[in-house]
Amino acid sequence: MTQRSKLLRSPYLEIIIMVSAVVLSYFGLIILGAIPETPADGVMATSTVVAIQFALFMLSVAIALISVIAGIGGGVIFTPIMLAFTSVNSVVVRGAGLIVAMFSGLISTGIFIKKGLCEYRTALLMTISQAIGALIGALLAIGLASSTGASGEGILRLSLGLVLVALAVYFLTGGKKLEHPEVRKIDRLSASLHLDGEYYEESEGRMFPYKVHRVGWATLLILLVGFIGGFFGMGGGWAITPVLNVCMGLPMKVAAASSGAILGIGSCVSIWAYMSAGAIIPFFVLPWLAGQVIGGFIGSYALARIKVHTVRLILIGIMFFTSFGLVTKALSTLGMMKNPSSMTQVIVFTVIIALVIVAIVLDKKKSSGKAAPAAHTEQAEVPEPKLPTSVRCYATVVHVITIVSSILALFAPLVILINPAANILNPNRIFQVIFSGGSIEEIWALSSTGSFPGAHYFINNMSASDSWAQIAISLGCSVGLWALLPTVAIQYFKEKNYVWATMGLLFIALIVLSMLGVF
Q1: Distance separating alpha carbons of residues 453 and 457, to the nearest angstrom
Q2: pTM score > 0.85 for this model?
């Protein structure tokens, strides 16, 4: 009875549900892909489509594992890789990149809040700042994309490559920040917001209190980070973690956990700029969404125990290799050099991976020489933090809706491929166009409506299979709205916490206006 009840509690229940959904959905896709067919010209075979869907899903799971543990957004890995090594249109990549950055953060939000690794008020304040910056960046990116051609694509890839090199250098030379920064002087604004807290460090078996400072500066920096992330479609976790750790003084694990929560909920605003522009192609983003949730779920529970430094070394290697691909492809697009051969890319990749492995081995040898933690800390029971009812409600709603969205995203490709013609966008046809570098206009020109029917096209097209895919995506992309509505109500009427309830209402307004296409 005890074992049975254990399997019905978190995280075991979620694991059972998600694993079952993955097995059933991809078993069905494999059966569809095995049916003999003769595809027409310009149409991708269903077996190829299924293989690509599975490959994208597995890559998404791997990206989510690394990004959640390292405290960065998955978009910083996804967007450069796609721009460097595929011909997919940059706006489509950047839109999907925000989905990637968003959903690994969403699934980790509820987990980290309930574990005490993420403080709700700090996350909400920084989320509003990040969301505004990301929205401005997304709108600017879409506007520039419509007025630039191949040269614009080349400049974009080159710029992102250089940004990624700078990030890799930062992680290499400045990534080892203090685990628990010492805050000596607290400014008036930081003191008035009462954002100090404590968290339980599982690796040491004890509580760590912490204080924060320079909240004003951190808010401005997060605004800038949001702008860059929204423009390039790679979120902003790559910089949010350092800002929270270095500027505000949050412990490294708290900063990494809060980064995902800020990025996930903050994207509920900026993602709608891409959605309204038609850049979120449902069939293309479904495997990325589902993979981020499953990989992010695993990574969230691993963060408390795994050595972040090991993952950071792997991330540095990925950044350098992807920068190489971005810069060389950009220079090739601009006519400044020939695109390097596949063999050259394999050699560069092999060298970088070898260096990463050497660094990890050396780091383990260095760590093994240190005294091991006391044995009793391994068996210490993890205390559950005392959370207000409103915060617990917020964490639960985000968690449940994100999982529901991911399960729908797993089964949606199966429903879509059963009858490809019964969709707004024929999946076999559009995959061929997407991976050939087709623009948003070219992709939607193949739709049954002849052009992009709007972000909420599912309302008038419920009979189309991919309309249900759009519903799954829209549900997850608006999760901040559904989580904050009951949270704000509880804060206003039960807890009388008017300041933070008002801030919640402000963010609700931002989400609603973005969903309606006002921005």
Answers
A1: 6
A2: no
Amino acid at 212: V
Q: DSSP labels for 319-359?
A: HHHHHHHHHHHHHHHTTSSPPPPHHHHHHHHHHHHHHHHHH
Q: What's the count of helices (H) and strands (E) in the chain, helices before strands?
A: 20, 2
With b for 16 or more beta-carbon neighbours within 10 A and e for fewer, the 248-260 pattern comes to bbbbbbbbbbbbb
**What pLDDT does 25 receive?**
94
pLDDT for 1 equals: 45
Tell whether the torsion through CA atoms of 60, 399, 423 and 21 is positive or negative: positive
Please check the confidence at residue 413 and state whether its pLDDT lies above 70. Answer: yes
> What is the enclosing helix (H) or strand (E) of 200?
strand 197-201
Which of 218-227, 358-367, 402-411 has the lowest average pLDDT?
358-367
Average pLDDT estimate for 180-193: 84
Average pLDDT in the 143-162 region?
A: 69
User: Residue 313's CB: how many other CB atoms inside 10 A?
Assistant: 23
* DSSP H or E stretch at residue 197: strand 197-201
> Mutual orientation of helices 465-477 and 282-302 as an angle, nearest 10°?
40
| Spans of all domains in the chain | 11-33+44-515
Gap between the Cα atoms of 53 and 416, Å rounded: 12
**Cα–Cα distance, 489 to 504 (Å, whole number):** 10
User: Cα–Cα–Cα angle for 289, 299, 285, nearest 5°?
Assistant: 10
Q: What is the mean pLDDT of the chain?
A: 84
* pLDDT for the residue numbered 499: 92
